[in-house]
Amino acid sequence: MALLFVLVSVQGAQNISMESGTETFVEKTSQLYQDFDHLYMNIFGTEAIVIIVEDGPVSDPALLQAMDRLDHMSSSLPGVVGVQSVSSVVKDANFGLTGEAALPEDRVELESLITHYVPEQLMPDNTHTLIYVEIAGSVSDDQKQEILREIETSVVLAEFPPDYNIVVTGEPAFMVSMNNAMMSSMAVLLGLSVVLMIVVLYLVFGHVRWRLMPLAIVLLGIIYTFGAMGYLEIPMTMVSMAAFPVLIGLGIDYAIQFQNRIEEELERGETPAEAVVDTIKHTGPAVLIALIITALGFFSLVTSSVPMIQDFAKLLLIGIVMCFLASLFVGVTVIYGLDNMQSIRKERFGHLSLTGKNKSKTSSSNSKEAKPDILDRILGRTTHFTIKHPFMILSIAVLVCAGGLLADTQVPIQTDTETFVPQDLPALVDLKHLSDITGGEDQLNIIIKTDNVADPNTLKWMDEFSIHEVDNRNNILGAESMATIVKSMNGGVIPESEDEIRSLYEQMPAQQKDRFMYGENMLLLNLNIGDVMGSLGMEGVEVLTDVVRDDMLWMSPPPGLTATITGSNVVFTEVIGALTSGRVFMTYLGLGLVFGGLLLIYRDLLKALVPVVTMFMVVGWSGGLMYLMGMEYTPMTATLGALILGVGSEYAVLMMERYFEEKEKGATPEEAMTEAGVKIGKAIITSGLTTLFGFCALVASDFNIISSFGMITVIDVGLALFATFVIFPPVMVLLDNFREKRKAKKIILDGSFEDDISTTETGKYGTDPGADAF
């Protein structure tokens, strides 16, 4: 059945799609999405692949002929809506003057047309010219990649003169290159992560047979997760890629817990069948409860307003269930089968089985007398020390946690996307070079809805508002709209009549008109803000957007007009704000869900409170460490509060389950905690270190957004392990002893103490002196 599900999962995985469009950042039902994607991108929005031609005179006829050949090849590509270049402008100007849409052969005439008609946007100086290949805003990421590949081929086929340097760049080219580089980087890092996990399992999990089996089981769970993604139509995004290292870390813990308990039962002399039954009986519920609590911690991510964070949460929830099922059914079954095969092989050669009822008394006795290894001794001494000095340890922990929570508010938030990628990435170097040449091309886009696109009052308001913004706002460098085009065609003034305006509309090229006007009821005004995102950051763009919005209220449009400000920068600002501002809420919501879930499962305030207190300490410590290390939050690390709860609460719940199991056998709280720390502690340490070393591979990434995610996760997993063995034991023993004393006191006060003793004089407590001693 497991192999059959693998085939089904492989089929489902074929349906997984990679998404990075607006729908991954903004809910489709939101007004922000409607304004940007439906109104702007589908109607007016274009992106431009830019070809930089440099290191030679722009007026060279051979250069213009090559540009003309590139124009022809590029404009015929599906998804390309137009090409702007010096060549296309000169041909249009020559057609207007001579009726011939061709490049003049006379060099003097050519230079005259370039001087009088070519805008600065296409020719910043005499040795640089830019070719803009405009792509429709509705083009998919796969289509962009194909268009980019075709343009790069066309540049070669256009045969530019050898003295010129040709660079293909622009925002679409940068995004395609970044996505490809990140996918390649993640594949290499995940491979390195698996290698490090193998090393850790060999070093730490050496007390069991088949020590690499947990890794194989978790990879099976990941295959099932891929299949579920495809069938449930959960897309792959930049954030969801980070789910797989998390799933490997959590899934390997489930497999290790089951395998460790089976080995423990076998060492006690049980048969393979008995070992499986006891493992499922004791470890199965504990791991299932840990999974539920982990899921509740992750569920807080579903409340995010950013769709790709919601998809990240869905992927985590599905993944931990798949890894649990793989560990419970496949992992346990395989170990049972291997044990039986080993027993049959030994019996065939005339040897006694080393497990089960055939195990000799001598070997059983030897296993019981086996000395604990160094890890057992360290865990035992650590647990014993923390239980003996609870107030000192908890006082220090609480103070550090409080300081960390305060310091966390001072941890900066990195929103400049260019810092997320390697600074020597060729696509980024080329994009920065383009920005140096043009001064930046970021825009704020204002969509104006009207009943009449040729109304003079509408165009006059657009013109007056544009002039006001350019003159009074330092970061607004220019404006483009139908008003600026109409003015340039009419001697610098807006016509007074609708008929004159419509006459000018008829003279405009269709491509130019479609860029700023849609039908009879929509116009576009673009405000050029240069490189504000690079110079002032997200905060600067947000402030500038608010200023323009206030200006629109002050210089309100004529009656019947509505103006909506949108654009990629506005969307990005809103998304980053939602990602970073919501992280604190998601963390505390996760804590509340974990507490509520534990309370509902156990109906015991103590069992619900202790794991939450332990993980709350980790949240505070993590923020303090980030502040001390000078780290920053990014869109990817903003989810780490919920991840700490998910990973850390699992360790605490597993420790707590084993603690109460030992108590049920008659151990005191101190003895039960020491025994739990040694017995299950080794499995928790193994899974924790495996997870930690797996994430260490991400730290080596060239992408800052991935390496910072890996670094903070390593820190948080380490802190969660530390809290499980240093904070959890004293808190649990202290509160459990306090509760036991209160129960004993209540029995005495209720007058039922004597009745309890009398019924047990010949039982548990023995004679009266023993009862008195109790």
Strand and helix layout:
Blueprint (H helix, E strand, L loop, with lengths): L1 H12 L17 H14 L1 E9 L6 H15 L4 E5 L1 H13 L8 H11 L10 E9 L4 H17 L7 E5 L1 H34 L8 H20 L10 H25 L4 H28 L7 H42 L12 H8 L5 H15 L1 H19 L17 H13 L3 E8 L6 H17 L5 E3 L1 H8 L8 H10 L2 H7 E2 L3 E9 L1 H23 L7 E5 L1 H14 L1 H20 L2 H24 L11 H25 L4 H11 L1 H19 L4 H23 L1 H22 L3 H6 L9 H6 L1
Antiparallel strand pairs: 1-3, 1-4, 2-3, 5-8, 5-9, 6-8, 7-8
Helix pairs in contact: 1-8, 3-6, 4-5, 7-15, 7-26, 8-9, 8-11, 9-10, 9-11, 9-26, 10-11, 10-22, 10-24, 13-25, 13-28, 14-23, 20-21, 22-23, 22-24, 23-24, 23-27, 23-28, 24-25, 24-27, 25-28, 26-27
Report the sheet-strand fraction.
5-15%
CATH architecture of the domain at 45-176: 2-Layer Sandwich
Q: Which descriptor suits the 3D outline?
A: elongated
Return the CATH topology of the domain at 45-176: Alpha-Beta Plaits
Question: Which runs of at least 5 residues are low in confidence (pLDDT < 50)?
Answer: 351-369, 753-774
Structural class call reads alpha+beta
- How many individual helices? 30
Q: What is the tally of beta strands?
A: 9
Search tags:
774 residues, alpha+beta, Alpha-Beta Plaits, 9 strands
Short description:
The protein is α+β, with helices and mostly antiparallel strands.
What does this structure look like?
The chain is an alpha+beta fold. Among the domains are: about 130 residues, Alpha-Beta Plaits, CATH 3.30.70; about 110 residues, no CATH class; about 30 residues, no CATH class. The protein contains 30 helices and nine strands. Strands 5, 6, 7, 8 and 9 form a five-stranded antiparallel sheet that branches. Strands 2-3-1-4 form a four-stranded antiparallel sheet, with helices on both faces. Helix 13 packs antiparallel against helix 25. The chain is elongated. It holds the Pfam family MMPL. It is found in: Cell membrane.
